[in-house]
Amino acid sequence: MPDWLHEIDHTGDIGIRVTAETLPQLFERAAVGMFHVLTDLSAVRSSEETTLTVAGRDREALMVRWLSELNYRHTVEDRLYYDCTVQSIAEAEEGLTLTATVRGEPIDAQRHTVYTEIKAITFHGLRVEETEDGWRVQVIFDM
Description:
There is one protein chain. By secondary structure, the chain is an alpha+beta fold. It has one domain: Archease, Possible Chaperone, Chain: A, domain 1 (3-Layer(bab) Sandwich). The protein has helices at 23-38, 59-77, and strands at residues 5-10, 13-20, 48-56, 79-92, 95-106, 120-121, 127-131, 134-142. A hairpin with a 2-residue loop joins strand 7 and strand 8 (134-142).
């Protein structure tokens, strides 16, 4: 597990704590961190690249929407993502928008082991904070 990612046990659920130098990097790492919880990322290849845009009223809502969109694609479209690049986080009419490119592939039962399923990304204990060293987020997943 990378040094910027720490798993959190939370009353039957799982969470992650992520650190980054910049806000876009924080969103990138949070996505990768979520997929670390779901699977062995070393088995995921880059056969697809998709650009996504999500919106939220503030940084916390944007994080929930971002991770929820990726989890939706994982659960409903059977996708795994191992990498992403945030192109922008911009002020919008009703909050913030994030545009990013994600890389991954469809789940292949021969190569991928899915450890668990995430029912929802929660606002419980969610904090996106700027620190002296950069940025930090804590996210709890409803399992």
